[in-house]
Amino acid sequence: MKKLLKPIIVSMLAVSLLGLPHQTTEAAPVKYKNCKELNKAYPGGVAMNANVKNKGGKTKYKPSVSPSVYNLHKGLDRDKDGIACER
Questions:
Q1: pTM of the model
Q2: Helical spans, DSSP H, in 2-52
Q3: How many CB atoms are located within 10 Å of the residue 44 CB?
Q4: Domain regions of the chain by residue span
Q5: CA 83 → CA 25, 28, 47, 64, 77, distances in Å?
Q6: Dist. CA 40–CA 20, nearest whole Å
Q7: 85 touches 42 (CB < 8 A)
Q8: The pLDDT value given to residue 57
Q9: Is the pLDDT of residue 15 over 90?
């Protein structure tokens, strides 16, 4: 058993030292032309964080929270409340 254990440990160590590339699961955010297109993917709009409050009044949908998507569409946040294209 000891004869088998040493080569296994050595091979595991060698593989870990190779530094295999890590896979990322998050894709780059899509840039939408206008609020109509953005609302197809995000019906409630996109918020920069979960703590923002809507200044525009009552909305039908809750916004999705995504800082990267919000930063791409900051120009679509007309009332500057931290939520782009809220409905």
A1: 0.67
A2: 2-17, 35-41
A3: 17
A4: 23-84
A5: 25, 19, 4, 9, 6
A6: 38
A7: yes
A8: 80
A9: no
